[in-house]
User: What shape does this take?
Amino acid sequence: MKKQLLGLAIASACLMGISSAQELTGVLKKINDSGTISVGHRESSIPFSYYDNNQNVIGYSHDISMKIVENIEKKLGKKLNVKLSPITSQNRIPLVNNGTIDIECGSTTHNTSRAQEAGFSNTIFIINIKLVTDKDSGIKDFSDLNNKVVITTAGTTSERVLNEMNQKNNMNMKVQSLKDHGDAFMMLAGGRGAAFVMDDSLLYGERAKSRDPQKWVVTGTSQGKEAYACMFKKGDAGIKEVADFTIAEMSKSGELEALYNKWFTQPIPPRGVNLEFPVSEEMTELFKTPNDKAFQ
Assistant: This one.
């Protein structure tokens, strides 16, 4: 334990050393000059970033973003006013690029296409694209979705994958894209669709917060792995450096794995339901070797 604490103390000193050795530019200069950091968050991406019953932002990604803010404060040598700003899948990249949001940690996929538009931190989570459906629907895989109403969230990779699958395989799915994950699951629960296609971690979150979690099953052959990361303005080396440092240290210290267990394998607010989402091989490897690689 003493060695671990010493290592973290040295790492923190290194961060402070970087601060004094470099002139502030870009987003960090903006934050320093204003004394405020604007952090984007999702409103219903359980368990990554969402509201509890008191409208407080909580979640796995939110905990990581607050740790990054803490290290930015260390780097700048001052306490910051933290402004939490809700975002959606459609507006998150524009809000980062126009400077409204300084950093966003939610359930945002880092892929090669998005890397042309924005900057990304080390990976914080790895997911598979699957579907959730009523356990009695008879739907076991994506091939069972022919001629059915299929729900997804607008502006996501899952929406693109679903539309490409529909066109390529002539499945005649009626794809309905909703504003947010909560709205999408509500449509499914209301009987207005056969399945909801999205990242498996988010599907487990929606299942957990439903009135009867046992009614729903997450299933289907993975339609691709994706890396979640925190997002900021493209080319901003300063804020990327702090974000990467923070996530790497959380990985090495065991803090990131502890966060995983807290949010994915134990009861969580607001209803104390356990997502029952065991750690994957990909996540176990990520804890050992933090990196900022996109899957596609």
Q: What stands out?
A: The chain has two domains: 2-126+227-288, 128-225. The CA atoms of residues 140 and 263 lie 27 Å apart. Residues 128-225 form a domain with the D-Maltodextrin-Binding Protein; domain 2 fold (CATH 3.40.190.10). The first helix runs from residue 2 to 21.
